[in-house]
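Exercise 7 asks you to align residues with tokens for two separate proteins.
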Amino acid sequence: MKVRTRFAPSPTGYLHLGGARTALFSWAFARHFGGTFVLRIEDTDLERSTPEAVQAIIEGMQWLGLQHDEGPFYQMKRMDRYSAVLAEMLGAGTAYHCYSSPEEVEAMREKQRAIGEKPRYDGTWRPEPGKTLPAIPADRKPVIRFKNPLEGEVTWDDVVKGQITIANREMDDLVIARPDGTPTYNFCVAVDDWDMQITHVIRGDDHVNNTPRQINILLALGATLPKYGHVPMILGADGEKLSKRHGAVSVMDYPAQGYLPEAMLNYLSRLGWSHGDDEVFSMEQMCSWFNLDHLSKSPAQFNPEKLAWLNNHYIKLADNKRLADLIKPIMHEAQFDGAPDLEAVIALLKERANTTVELANSAMLFYRQPQPEAALLAQHLTDAVRPALQAFAAQLVTVTWTKADISAVMKSTLAEHGLKMPQLAMPLRLLITGQLQTPSIDAVLELFGREVVLSRINQGL
């Protein structure tokens, strides 16, 4: 059996983190076994599905690098196929027309609630041997209902949760086509999984209640059942369901906030799955390890600090040109003409950056005119320091312009004037960059270059 998995989002909004993790697990499982990963857009909810949401899903998948092998398939383009299957089921007696109005169905349910029963469709139009059905209303279009088994139970070995059993009496006859003929969610999913020969369905555990309905439809069609695995949801750090109040939950919020896709993939991998104690690994490694054996039965907690730590790790590993291409569009007010090489600046700064946005903000000190606060200058550029600063500048005129030689001149100047490093470094930082917090001052001076450094020192003095 060749493994075939699918990711089947509904385009009613952005690609959220839970959906991205489902896509990642399905993709990695297919890659592990040399199988096929299918992208399917479940767009039959016409009121809520939008082209913008479809585009957001595809862009999120592309940013993460989760390339599909087949698709994207759109359910709304498969209406002829669904109509044919519905006709077959009506002919086979596994589905039937139901003329009960929504108001009549709600009245049934209210009556059942009143006597303590589970609310459900009561089977008024369900054909049975010897049963006389009501007269068909002249002014009403029917829905099509699936003729769910009345006895027995549905059992499957969930690859995450273990064996799950649902009694058929807990399910009523599901509407599988609306009065206008458009098919409903569970019916379309079952037909699609059958047609696309999906072998493994990996999805969130909010779909557990859909699974027995889809299994019964597949059995009625004579289809081979896929294996199902339902992954627990992702919670916020407070233990509540992840939502907008926890920060960004759309995948495409994260590149804008300065996260790298490899960091997001690595982080999502560890939300509900593990490989020993490994925390940092490539997607090649994950695909070689991922086989569903170590998926957690417990909800995963989203930890922004852990994601930031991973992102810092991948920023440090990233090519400086790639990082330059990412941060240059963020640096709107940067003056690049005659300024230090951006890749060299990135090499100096990226060790400390958790995001590319932080990296861009840090890099800006090399690409704007310094505007030190007068109070800070008065505090650090004292009469005791001025002679040392003048002597330091004089030696910079002829020194070989390397970090090591600049550092040596600084040390000799400090010794000659009886000062400590902060007494010289602080006013230098203010005059050169306009701020007190920078990387090592000798490295900063080296990047700015002799002409800029001498100009700003002399201007400050």
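Second protein for Exercise 7:
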Amino acid sequence: MSAEEERRLARVALTWLAEPGTRAVHHLVERHGPVATLDLLLDGGSPDGWLHTTVAARSAAGDARAVAAEALERAERLGARLVTPDDEEWPAQVASLATLRLPDVSRRVDGETAPPLCFWVRGSWPLGEALDRSVAVVGARAATGYGQHVATELGYGLAERDWTVVSGGAFGIDAAAHRGALTAGGLTVAVLACGLDRPYPMGNAALFDRIAETGLLVSEWPPGAEPLRPRFLIRNRVIAVGTRGTVLVEAAARSGATQTARRAIHGNRVAMVVPGPVTSAMSVGAHEFLREHPDKARLVTGVAHVLEEVGRIGADLAPVARGPQRPTDALDDDARSLLEALPRRGAMGVDRLSARARVDVRTALRKLSLLEELSMVVRREDGYALAPPAKPKRAAAVASGPAGT
């Protein structure tokens, strides 16, 4: 076995011994390399008591190197590959997880946010290239029709503009975002919390196959790994920091999707929230997230707003929301005052009209001529009047007489 193969095998074995994101393992690998770290842990030399206990318990279930070798063979049969930091396609941005610290941590899973040791990938796109221009779209599994509509539109619009849509492959918002990107013929990435051969939920198996054909399925867990509950939170840190920003579409009061947005903020990424109906339970978490992070979370209502947050500075600006254009919008104050001073019916002389509009007679005559050219007023013998509204055009006349006569 070459030195490179030994390093790759060691990374897989370390991920099996301790869950991805374990900071103690990350620090040891940074200091000693993966092979020496594996030897140290298997010899019982961990400086961390919890990690020592974890490694001992896992080692009782099998030989770490043998398990890793079997995982690599299983991945090859699956058509998947192992990607490590030594590979050219490794996404460099996940290195910033080394500095990700969540405040007020009470659970171990919230503190273990170290960078990945490796990724398992199914699909032909280079992983780093796929994530380079990417946006995460996440939200509730029990999404409403409104939420699914918004997520689909976001997925489609981002993909149409050559942005990769990243999500977790779950029911609801995740699946809607993936499908939107696929419908647009764009690139989408599903980051899973289990082995690539055990996609969860199974109800989305056909969707995962479609994603693998044109995009990527990604996981930190080797083939065969089960979708245990804590693994979804561990997975979420990769979605949050591996992308340029995270859009939270819908979330209940307690939602893993809000944890993804929280990790995005503390990972120095953009966190965005789509507002929903205040009467919907699926919007409570999203709205509370906006209230809790008023200075960092951004409210967005569509693709243009998202691109303004994650795109090039000064280039991807969203258009200002405006009402419908009106003919009077281009008028100055004097012309608008004269127009408002005219009676709804009948005409009015210039002297009386100028007094009513508080405009001198000379200015009134000049502005009334302009309004006449714009077909907003008409001149009569007894003064000026509002032009009658334009009549709707009639449909083209049909041939005279009933058909066949």
